[in-house]
Structure formats: C-alpha cells, structure tokens
Design goal:
Layout (H helix, E strand, L loop, with lengths): L4 E6 L2 E8 L2 E7 L8 H17 L9 E4 L3 E5 L3 E3 H4 L4 H16 L13 E4 L4 E3 L13 H21 L6 H7 L4 H8 L1 H11 L15
Antiparallel strand pairs: 1-2, 2-3, 3-5, 4-5, 6-7, 7-8
Helix pairs in contact: 3-4, 4-5
C-alpha cells in the first residue's frame, strides 16, 4: 500500500503526497470538500488542470497527471516553500523572473503569487511554482492580461525585497512603489473582507503559519 502524507485538509478537500505505479505525486481530493464548497472546489481544480495542461513541459511547473472531476493529480516537485527556505541567492530571483516570463508567453497568469507557499525552492536551489487554482487561463493577452501579469511580477519583487533587497534594481524598486490601480482598490476595499472569510471560514493565512502578513 503506497504511503500517503496529508499536506492539508479543509473545506475545499484534501491535498496529499501519494505514490502510484512508483511515481510520487500530489493528489487534490475534491470529493472530500464540504458539500457547500464542493462546486467551488471543483471549479478551482478544473482551472488548475487547465493551466497545467497549457504549461506542459515547462521546468519548474508540476506536470498534470490526471483530472477526472473528483481528484487532481500533479507531479511532485521536491523542495521547500519560500517561507521556510527564505531564498537569499540572486540567482533564484533571476530564474524566477525567467519562469514567470515563460508562463506569460504561454498565456497564463498565476494570480496568487503574494503567497509564499506557492513559491518553492527546489532541492538544487531553483524556483518552482504550485497552486494554479485561480490562474488566468484564457490565453488572450490583452490589456487585462498585461495588468495581471505585471502584478505577478510585482509580487515576486516583494519577496525579493524581503529576502534579497540588495539585488533590486532601480526599475524594480519603481515597480514596487507603483501597484496597479486594481491592486490599490483591492487593498482599500475587498482585502479585509477576503482575509476575514479566508481565516474564519477556511482557516487560511497569507503566509500559512509564517506568523506575519505582508501587503
């Protein structure tokens, strides 16, 4: 019987490390979601599957191994989440910028890169991205796409400012100081409500146990 390691269990289901046919993978069990959250959990998993299918073959993104409407299987990437690894090497951020550029060329915006657990530091020090549940997957690269892609980049620069601030360029500092209009509106209006729901209903924290929340 393959060993299964539970990573998270909440209203949206279970996330586990498991093994099938000798292949280690991550399993998202949507069927385990609470009845009132099951529709949302299924939609989120379907979006992640769609994003991963469009990113097939990209180093630093999990491979899509299966999606049947009840469970999502994706490839396992060894490493630590950013808040544990705390990457301070300039090369990590250079590679992370290139990884984001590849995503955006494929027409995908991650949309959730403010959360440090969505950035991995692999065993060899290279970056990887996980959790594409709210990714932009339409492929069209219009004005809204460019706006969201810029926010992907700005969230990466926030992490760089935390762990490797001496490597920020003048252009990157300027970008950090000029959030997009929708980001400023979100912080002024909906972010507090989002945090309240996420914490009280789903038990989520922006940095998942890191002990602080960064805007």
């Amino acid at each position: 019987m393959p060993k299964t390691i539970l990573l998270k269990a909440d209203e949206l289901g279970r996330i586990e490390i498991t093994e099938r046919d000798g292949i280690r993978m991550i399993r998202r069990d949507v069927a385990a979601a609470r009845w009132w959250a099951r529709w949302f959990a299924r939609r989120a998993a379907a979006r992640e599957a769609r994003a991963l299918s469009k990113l097939t073959g990209i180093d630093g993104v999990p491979a899509l191994l299966g999606w049947d409407g009840k469970e999502l299987l994706r490839g396992y990437i060894g490493g630590l989440p950013m808040q544990q690894a705390q990457p301070r090497d300039r090369d990590y951020y250079r590679r992370a910028l290139r990884l984001l550029a590849v995503l955006h060329r494929r027409g995908i915006v991650h949309n959730d890169l403010a959360k440090e657990p969505n950035w991995l530091v692999r065993d060899d020090g290279r970056p990887a991205l996980v959790d594409f549940q709210i990714a932009w997957t339409r492929g069209r690269r219009g004005a809204l796409f460019r706006l969201l892609a810029r926010e992907d980049l700005r969230h990466l620069l926030k992490h760089k400012r935390t762990y490797c601030p001496e490597a920020l360029s003048a252009r990157q500092i300027a970008m950090l100081n000029t959030p997009a209009p929708h980001s400023r509106l979100w912080r002024a209006t909906g972010k507090r409500l989002y945090k309240l729901i996420a914490r009280r209903v789903f038990g989520y924290w922006d940095n998942e146990g890191k002990g602080r929340v960064r805007d």
